[in-house]
Amino acid sequence: MSDEDADVMYKDRIEDGPQMKLIPLITAILVTGFLYLLVFEREELMAFAQSRTSDTDQDGDASVAQDDDQDETAIRVFAVKSQARMIDSAVILRGQTEAARSVEVRAQTSGQVTSEPLRKGNYVTTDQLLCQIDVGTREASLAEANARLAEARARVPEAQARLDEAMARLDEAKINDNAASKLSQGGFASETRVASAQASVRAAEAAVASAKSGLESTGAGIQSAEAAIASVQKDIDRLQITAPFEGLLETDTAELGSLMQPGALCATVLQLDPIKLVGFVPETDVDRVEIGALAGARLAGGQDVQGRVTFLSRSADQTTRTFRVEIQVPNADLKIRDGQTAEIIVAANGASAHLLPQSALTLNDDGDLGVRTVDANNLAQFAKLTLLRDTADGVWVAGLPETANVITVGQEYVIDGVSVLPTYEEPKQ
Predict the structure, then answer these.
(1) Tens digits of per-residue pLDDT, 333-385?
(2) Could you check whether the bond before residue 274 is cis, i.e. omega within 30 degrees of 0?
(3) What CA–CA distance (Å, rounded) separates 204 from 165?
(4) Which CATH code of 2.40.30.170, 2.120.10.30, 2.70.20.10, 3.40.50.280 fits the domain covering 269-347?
């Protein structure tokens, strides 16, 4: 390098020195201003940037910015697009079988059993003999009552004759009294004769009354004898204890030689054809059950039976607040026994319902059961539901429109009006 070149470089460095000192200072000022705007004037800065962006591309970029802001504030949830379907509604109950009739046949008189016993399980027909009681002295009592009746009837002619005689004497006394009165008025009869005639009339009237009383007493004797005969005959009829209807013997009949007293058990008879299914429906479902409705049941042993509702109680049980339901079921082969546990299904009118997972159900602040749905603006809304049926695939509910976007995950974290960002799942078929 020559001395001339060195002098030139020295002069340039001297001239550029102040300028190089200003650059860091300017940089520091710019950084400070930017930090100030970023920290203290952030909203104004963002508004300025947004307005600038809007001026550049008003339609596209504004939409993108709005979506991004919504994504940041909305709550992400999982939902399902549910479609209503028609289902056969049913009321499910737990109950048991019950005999159509169950009667304890008891003695109405006393005596010793003279018939051989029938063993339990035997089938008996109407009026079939179950227990025969010894007649004892009842036949003698009946003969005595018949004799008293005959005696009482034999007294009737005599009593009637006495009455007729007394009536004739009364007529005679009245004639004599009338004659004496007329003779006395003409001066041909004394007062004594008139008084005697009147006394005879009164005596005749008393005799008539006595004869009538005797005839009535005879009639009462006849009625008493007839009542005694009827009582003894009724007691004799009660010596034969018969089956009140067709059915099965639940117990052995009274043993031969045993002493029966009024009220003692002879046998228990069950009528199992038809048989009854008895259940208890809660008050929330009682209006869905109707007389004559088709019903089915599965017994504990796995047997399926069908019948129709024949009775629905109008009064609730005071303890359980349920209503008794009876279903009549044919049982010609007598395979269904009294007291078997049964799961009963009573058919009800069809309903439009949604099949939802049980996890989708929630409660609002008032304690109402329902679900959270997503409306057209992606806002959460609570919908009150009615639970129709609980199945292994989910729950059938009513109360939603034909199509509904139901939140299945995240419903516990949103309330009405909250913006949500749903991710839709495939509904169950």
Answers:
(1) 989 999 999 999 998 777 788 999 999 999 998 889 999 999 999 999 999 99
(2) yes
(3) 10
(4) 2.40.30.170
